[in-house]
Amino acid sequence: MLKQLNDSVEFIKKRIGDFEPEIGIILGTGLGGLVNDIEVTHQLSYSHIPHFPISTLEFHSGKLIFGTLSGKKVVAMQGRLHYYEGYNMKQITFPVRVLKLLGIKTLFVSNASGALNPAFKKGDLMIIEDHINLQPENPLTGTNFDELGPRFPDMSEPYQKHLIEKALAIAAKEQITCHKGVYASVTGPNLETRAEYKYLRIIGADAVGMSTVPEVIVANHMGLPVFAISVLTDEGFPETLKAVSVEEIIKTATEAEPHMTNILKQLILLV
């Protein structure tokens, strides 16, 4: 892994020159529009970077975008990887390690997820304050490389409390409906059954999705502070459950994205 990471980092550095990103951003399903606000200096397709996994989803473009946002040098992953695409957890989280080695100091993560808390509604935002990992594999299993992080990383604060409070204040100021809650990460790709939604609510989850947690685990392993936000694209309420399509989910994410972008841009300014 160390050689592969070094190969990727060296390849990227040769193409971005002296550009040193300080903030990394992972853009979730239907949430790639933030790139339009970045003053882009460089773009690299995942397929051109040695050892970099390639997104297989048509709505994930698979590019690293380098540039300036809110006065900060950023690198954005326009397209993330998922377990259901057939990748293992080390492949899924490989890009996070690359971003850290490129020099980022904070990681911002976005995703589309389903609401479980009946006080939340489709189209709302939820800042993640904690998570429940229901993925069948952990990205830290196997050999631990001390150069990357400790064998047993602490997870008492996987999401930075001070960033959560600042984001909530921004949302209140902008009159954006934004909650904070617990995110459950499952494999997908199918959406949940009525009984599964009920179970997830019982164990303490406010929203459910198919990503984010593996990347957050690896970020914490490498000592990288994290802020994460979900766009709630559907409602997993067993009492009133309705069928939903991926097209509807992407449509809702796209409609709510300007609110998420507003919060992220202002929050990045404060980091």
Automatic annotation (TrEMBL):
Q: Where are the transmembrane segments?
A: none
Q: In which pathway does it act?
A: Purine metabolism; purine nucleoside salvage
Q: What is its EC number?
A: 2.4.2.1
CDD domains in the record: PNP-EcPNPII_like
Q: Which Pfam families match?
A: PNP_UDP_1 (PF01048)
Report any one BP term from Gene Ontology.
nucleoside metabolic process
A cellular component annotation (GO) from this entry: cytoplasm
Q: Which GO terms describe its molecular function?
A: purine-nucleoside phosphorylase activity
**Keywords on this record?**
Glycosyltransferase, Phosphoprotein, Transferase
Residues annotated as domain Nucleoside phosphorylase: 23-268
Q: Kindly give the PANTHER family that the UniProt entry links to this protein.
A: METHYLTHIOADENOSINE/PURINE NUCLEOSIDE PHOSPHORYLASE, PURINE NUCLEOSIDE PHOSPHORYLASE-RELATED
- Family membership: Belongs to the PNP/MTAP phosphorylase family.
Function as written in the Swiss-Prot or TrEMBL entry: The purine nucleoside phosphorylases catalyze the phosphorolytic breakdown of the N-glycosidic bond in the beta-(deoxy)ribonucleoside molecules, with the formation of the corresponding free purine bases and pentose-1-phosphate.
In Swiss-Prot or TrEMBL terms, this protein is called: Purine nucleoside phosphorylase
Species of the source: Pedobacter aquae
